[in-house]
Amino acid sequence: MQKTHRALILFLLPLCVLLLLSSSSPAFFPPRVEVSQDPELSGNLGRILEPHWFERKTTVLIGEDGLGKDQLDVIYQAQLDQGIRNLPLLSLLLVRESLNRLDRKDLERAEFLCQYAKKFAPDSPSPYFTMGRIHWSRNKTLVTLAAREYVKGIYATFRNFRIQFFTSLNTIYLVSGAILLTFVAFALFMALKYMLIYIHDVKKEFDPAPLKFLWSLVKILAFVVPVLLHLNLLWSLLYWTILLWGYLARRERQMVLVFLLLLVYVSWILDGAKDFLKTADPMILMSLHQANEANWGNGTKKTLKNWGRENPEDADVLFTLGLLNKREGNYKGAESHYKRALQYDPNWAECISNLGNVYLSTQRTEEAIREYERAVSLSPRRASFYLNLHRASVSDSILSSDNVGQSLERAQNLDPRLVEFHTKIFSENNNRAVIDDTLGDARLWKKAFQFLKERYSLPEDILSAWMKKVPGKNDFIYPIFFLAFLLLLWAACSRKNFSKRCPLCGAPSVKFFARKIERDRVCFGCNRLFVKKESIDPKMREKKMRQVRRFERRRVIIRSIISLIIPGGGHVWKNQPVRGVLFVFVFFLFAFKFLYWNGVLQDPLFLGDPSVFWSRLIFVLFFVIYYLAVLRSALRIEA
């Protein structure tokens, strides 16, 4: 039995990871994209593709008259001339046509288009996954070729800021929603399990004496406190669960404490995520990524300029505007923006190197070399700085050939692939002669966390979360009330005996007797009949046996129904709340993922999933396996 549970847990862990990784837009499946839907198409991408795209509209990649090698090479050279690293939209269009060719078994054309898709967007994961499918279709015995492409695609997925940004937000909503629904299910199970015993105790202690009558009335009115205070469903369920504290088993009490913490902090995280999305911060992050790593248009540039006017000390925006000006040939504007960025971050090596690129583009070689050497001193492990220094040194006759060679050798030792690529694409074009560094994903993530930190100071909010107003109409109820209420009930439980159900007959009782064989404690009647085996009246014996059979039959039916409706519910009912809550949580992960297949927040660049039928079929298959495994575990407990 223990082996079965371990195997089930080992099955759950990778499954949870798979669910979380696929919680955003489907990066693993190339989407169907229509050109008119991309907001930046009228920007630089439009100028690059104008002679090849707009005259032929949407048929340019379809049919036998699609783009050939010469046309694609011209587009690729235009992309390099403008200093653009990725053209994700064009890459996705090529991937789409490559998949169409793959479906028609035209493997040569499919591979040709996919190779160019990788060249146009080396940071996009879709071309790598598509190339893996092509290798697999061509020769299923060469698994390593397909696997290598899939590994590259996974790596590109994890290092792509845009994908991971949407994945992170969607994961927050998916996990938080599953936690909250798991708590709702757990609270309902506890109410169903113990509410009748609570009512039994209230009826048993009812006395017409004034003080005792008043105390019984308080117990009854305690149920309607959430209604009077207009608490929402989550806090009402928490209140009712705490009200049953004296009847809960030890592990069930532990789960209540866990959910008390989660309800405070998960709600805080969800509120923070919602407030973050209502600001302009996500748009700025996407604009910065678009301008640094992909093609940009007038809309992106206008957004950054407006933000820069409102936030003149934002060095990242100043850096990006300098980069765009340099790529467009406005070297005076680029120099101004880079210098302003360095005022707020004087030791920013990438910005210093890019300023050197501006100087080199305007024939100020000595100033460029000075900036490159300063960048190297700040970040001696960056190959691009050494390669830029080498390019500047070649054009400066003052430096010796030894110094020139040392810079190139150092760059090759640090990053030979970078040197090889930029040597291959080198030309006199100022966007290709040197390497313009970009913000990079690490800097963008740092900026995202900075936005969150400015609005939610973590050390303060973790403490103040307990004083945060409970979601509801009344603002004077705080989570600290629930903690105080729980502590009072805890103290009361240690002084007073609460009724428990006998595990054999289900009769509520205060006094219990230990059984000889099992750990369960049984009521007085069951102790006489089954433990001590006393001779009692046959009618009483038959009545007790009917009561035992009726209770066992009802308990089996309830556990079976709960297990069928919510996997893991039977474990919670059978006093295995930790394992049961884990199973229920994974069930709600499945439910949320199925409801929000493309993510709660969808990346507009990923507009569809051509493999949606098969991917959902595999997903349903995983769910069926999980459902049957949890149901089998519940039946084994029952047996």
Query: Helicity, in percent?
Result: 55-70%
Ends: how far apart? 11 Å
Number of helices: 30
Strand content: under 5%
**Structural class based on helices, strands and sheet pairing:** mainly alpha
The value of Rg in angstroms is: 33 Å
Low-confidence stretches: 17-43, 52-64, 472-476
Overview of the structural elements:
With 639 residues, this protein is mostly helical. It has helices at 2-21, 44-49, 69-81, 88-103, 107-120, 126-138, 143-159, 161-204, 210-221, 225-229, 233-243, 250-278, 281-293, 298-310, 315-327, 331-344, 349-361, 365-378, 383-394, 401-414, 416-424, 430-433, 440-455, 458-464, 479-495, 524-531, 538-565, 569-573, 577-595, 612-638, and strands at residues 500-501, 508-509, 513-514, 521-522. It has a two-stranded antiparallel sheet. A hairpin with a 6-residue loop joins strand 3 and strand 4 (521-522). It is elongated. The model is unreliable at 17-43, 52-64 and 472-476 (pLDDT under 50).
Descriptive keywords:
70% helix, mainly alpha, two-stranded antiparallel ribbon, 4 strands, 639 residues, elongated
Q: What is this entry, summarized?
A:
The protein is mostly helical. Helices cover 70% and strands 1% of the residues. Strands 1-2 form a two-stranded antiparallel sheet. A two-stranded antiparallel ribbon has the order 3-4.
Helices, strands, pairings?
Layout: H1 2-21, H2 44-49, H3 69-81, H4 88-103, H5 107-120, H6 126-138, H7 143-159, H8 161-204, H9 210-221, H10 225-229, H11 233-243, H12 250-278, H13 281-293, H14 298-310, H15 315-327, H16 331-344, H17 349-361, H18 365-378, H19 383-394, H20 401-414, H21 416-424, H22 430-433, H23 440-455, H24 458-464, H25 479-495, E1 500-501, E2 508-509, E3 513-514, E4 521-522, H26 524-531, H27 538-565, H28 569-573, H29 577-595, H30 612-638
Antiparallel strand pairs: 1-2, 3-4
Helix pairs in contact: 1-30, 4-5, 4-6, 5-6, 6-7, 8-11, 8-12, 8-29, 11-12, 11-25, 13-14, 13-23, 14-15, 15-16, 16-17, 17-18, 18-19, 19-20, 20-21, 27-30, 29-30
